[in-house]
């Protein structure tokens, strides 16, 4: 029998995401995908899924969901005030649940969390990915954020006939050190160095497409240029002098000046930025960026191995 | 036959380099972009992930596990390896795609006013718009939105003072010196001359777009009956 997940209340912005859409950028199709793909991967590892299974991305306040059959779930990212039929559900570990209602409340210490369910969210892949493209209106569940009343199938998983909530005593916490400056490779733009010397705060108009920064506006010496490719991490400088760091839903081309790009190792951390939060940037060279990206991949792989070693005992 | 324009290689992301041929709207630079894109695809490097052609630059995305410096060295060699004459845009195979367009009436609410502004009859405007030999300079802004070169400069039109809240999917329009096609219903300020019944972007298709960067495009005027017969319903 196919298990399904019913949305009783949607939360602030809950979307189906996987590791994103690759190969269609030349046709204007964004990458999309979990804003912290490593966190989504680890949530999947905790429930025994492949790294690219579809998960739910929660924003600031989570949804209330009904499971019509037992499932193993895991929450990674910001701490979620989660309850299952009244009982507290711990984060950062595999949790076996019988059929019932999973209430995901406010997120603390960050803006986003990822919920993996064994078998994955089994929506149809579109252009090779189950990620929701919010601006394009396709992929994920009906190309949009979840709403109350939605129901989606879950993929097949090992039967776990549990009558009560069960969770191990161990957990993982792969969260990032939020006090560190965000490192970026500066471009040749005259304002690229000044960007690091100023403090910024995260604007409330930020979304999955871009993190908008507020602060002392930078000088914008010339008008917009000819549109050229941009990517998640690109730091744009629009005419108002307040930079935008593009995130996973970034458009594929843009005409604003570029101050450089946030390095791959620090990009996942930006998923946790809350409006009003201060943010500092520090320049970084290409060799260091590459070394840090390799180190970040190795860290995620190590945590994955630790999870696999512990899972059979759960 | 001229040599390849000079090309700078700049960082775009930790897993992408930007090949910049210039920073102006110039069909020759764009031709170089498409020629380089074709060359890169043909070379089939194992690290290659995505190639994104734009007006005067090209994004090259690679396997993030590969040392970017190694990719840079290979790109540099490719850029320098172009023999004058051997790599001009004319050597790049390009498709020609015909886009049927129903001009005027409900399909093209701005045709009459645009023609009046250009001091042409609506028929003459349609004829001159169809006579153009267009190239897809790049696709972007929205999935499947083609930026086309080749609009007759005499047909350039200012954008609407107040953009429309809804422009129908398939609308063929002029904005400034450019012409383009709205792949899906969206707000927009370009002057709408007509509408194609083709679905320019359908994520359920692979590839999802009717047009690819570098394609040649010709507009063919059709009537309302033909438009109804050719109608493709885009999914979004």
Please identify, by name, the CATH architecture of the largest domain in chain B: Beta Barrel
> What is the overall silhouette of chain B?
elongated
Structural class of chain A, please?
alpha+beta
| Total separate domains of chain A | 2
> Whole-Å distance between the termini of chain A?
25 Å
Query: Could you name the CATH homologous superfamily of the largest domain in chain B?
Result: Cyclophilin-like
**What are the secondary-structure elements of chain B, in order, as H or E?**
EEHEEHEHHEEEEEEEEH
What level of helicity do the residues of chain A show? 10-25%
Description:
The complex is a heterodimer of chains A (314) and B (236). Chain A is α+β, with helices and mostly antiparallel strands and 314 residues long. In chain A, strand 11 and strand 12 (210-214) form a beta hairpin. Helix content of chain A is 12%, strand content 30%. Chain B is an alpha+beta fold and 236 residues long. Chain B folds into two domains: 8-90, Gyrase A, domain 2 (2-Layer Sandwich), CATH 3.30.1360.40; 96-232, Cyclophilin-like (Cyclophilin, Beta Barrel), CATH 2.40.100. In chain B, the strands form three sheets. A seven-stranded mixed beta barrel of chain B has the order 5-12-9-10-7-6-13, surrounded by four helices. In chain B, helix 3 (111-117) packs across helix 4. The termini of chain B are far apart. The model of chain B has no long low-confidence stretch (mean pLDDT 90). Chains A and B meet through strand 13 and helix 3 of A and strand 1, strand 2, strand 3 and strand 4 of B.
Keywords:
heterodimer; A: 314 residues; alpha+beta; Cyclophilin; 9-stranded antiparallel sheet; 8-stranded mixed sheet; 19 strands; 12% helix; B: 236 residues; Gyrase A, domain 2; 2 domains; 7-stranded mixed beta barrel; 5 helices; elongated
């Amino acid at each position: 029998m196919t298990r399904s997940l019913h949305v009783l209340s949607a939360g602030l912005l809950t979307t189906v995401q996987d590791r994103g859409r690759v190969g269609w950028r030349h046709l204007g199709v964004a990458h999309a995908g979990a804003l912290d793909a490593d966190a989504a991967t680890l949530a999947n590892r905790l429930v025994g899924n492949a790294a690219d299974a579809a998960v739910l991305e929660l924003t600031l306040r989570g949804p209330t969901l009904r499971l019509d059959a037992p499932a193993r779930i895991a929450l990674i990212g910001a701490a979620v005030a989660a309850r299952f039929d009244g009982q507290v559900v711990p984060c950062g570990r595999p949790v076996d649940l019988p059929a019932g209602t999973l209430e995901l409340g406010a997120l603390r210490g960050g803006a986003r969390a990822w919920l993996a369910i064994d078998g994955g969210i089994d929506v149809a892949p579109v252009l090779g990915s189950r990620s929701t493209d919010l601006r394009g209106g396709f992929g994920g569940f009906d190309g949009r954020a979840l709403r109350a009343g939605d129901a989606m199938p879950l993929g097949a998983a090992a039967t776990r006939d549990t009558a009560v909530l069960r969770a191990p005593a161990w957990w993982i916490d792969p969260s990032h050190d939020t006090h560190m400056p965000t490192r970026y490779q500066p471009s040749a733009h005259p304002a690229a160095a000044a960007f690091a010397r100023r403090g910024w705060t995260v604007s409330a108009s930020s979304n999955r497409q871009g993190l908008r920064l507020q602060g002392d506006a930078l000088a914008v010496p010339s008008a917009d240029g000819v549109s050229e490719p941009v990517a998640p991490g690109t730091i744009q400088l629009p005419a108002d002098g307040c930079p935008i760091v593009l995130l996973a839903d970034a458009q594929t081309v843009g005409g604003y000046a570029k101050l450089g790009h946030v390095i791959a190792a620090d990009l996942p951390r930006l998923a946790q930025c809350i409006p009003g939060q201060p943010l500092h940037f520090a320049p970084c060279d290409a060799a260091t960026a590459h070394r840090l990206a390799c180190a970040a991949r190795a860290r995620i792989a190590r945590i994955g191995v630790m999870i696999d070693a512990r899972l059979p005992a759960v | 036959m001229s040599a390849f324009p000079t090309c700078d290689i700049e960082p775009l992301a930790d897993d992408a380099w930007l090949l910049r041929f210039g920073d102006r709207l110039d069909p020759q630079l764009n031709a170089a972009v498409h020629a380089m894109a074709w060359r890169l695809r043909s070379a089939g490097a194992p690290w290659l992930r995505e190639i994104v052609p734009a007006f005067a630059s090209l994004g090259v995305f690679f396997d993030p596990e590969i040392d970017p410096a190694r990719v840079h060295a290979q790109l540099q060699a490719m850029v320098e390896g172009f023999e004058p004459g051997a790599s001009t845009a004319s050597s790049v195979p390009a498709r020609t795609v015909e886009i049927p367009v129903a001009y005027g009436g409900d399909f093209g609410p701005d045709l009459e006013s645009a023609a009046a502004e250009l001091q042409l009859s609506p028929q003459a405007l349609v004829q001159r718009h169809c006579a153009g030999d267009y190239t897809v300079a790049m696709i972007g802004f929205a999935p499947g939105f083609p930026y086309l070169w080749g609009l007759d400069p005499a047909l350039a039109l200012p954008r609407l003072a107040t953009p429309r809240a809804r422009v129908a999917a398939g609308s063929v329009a002029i904005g400034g010196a450019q012409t383009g096609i709205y792949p899906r219903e969206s707000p927009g300020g370009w002057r709408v001359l007509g509408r194609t019944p083709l679905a320019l972007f359908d994520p359920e298709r692979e590839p999802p777009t009717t047009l690819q960067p570098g394609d040649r495009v010709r507009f063919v005027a059709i009537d309302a009956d033909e438009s109804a017969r050719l109608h493709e319903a885009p999914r979004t």
